[in-house]
Amino acid sequence: MDQNQLLERVVELTRMIEEAAAVSDWPRAARLMERRTPLLESLTLPKSPAALQALRRVQASIDALRTRAKVSQAELETEYGTAVKGVQGASAYARVGML
Question: Cα 38–12–63 angle (5° rounding)?
């Protein structure tokens, strides 16, 4: 695969990752990232302005998705904590009800 084809594939995988993240399908986004990473690592710095711009868009997407993933993780941790407290409360109520 030449560098142009490689960059096209990276851009396509980036688009797919963005789509997965848009619907909070983080497992799919992670699988796609695993496919994209070795391709990114094998890219050389493009010489054409259009290719360089495409690579910059990919980097911007990576940065934005990293931030979004951190926010999503924090939200899920909060929801999980709330659910655990709810389970603990229901269990305590059930125990008292058995006395």
Answer: 70
Residue span of the structural domain in which 7 resides:
3-97
Number of domains in the chain: 1
H helical segments located in 1-99: 3-22, 26-42, 49-97
CB 87 within 8 A of CB 94: no
Residue 99 confidence (pLDDT): 66
CA–CA separation, 87 vs 99, rounded Å? 19
Residue 7 token pair: 């960059």
Closest among 36, 34, 29, 30 to 13, alpha carbons compared: 36
Read off the pLDDT of each residue in 40-46 and give the average, rounded to a whole number. Answer: 92
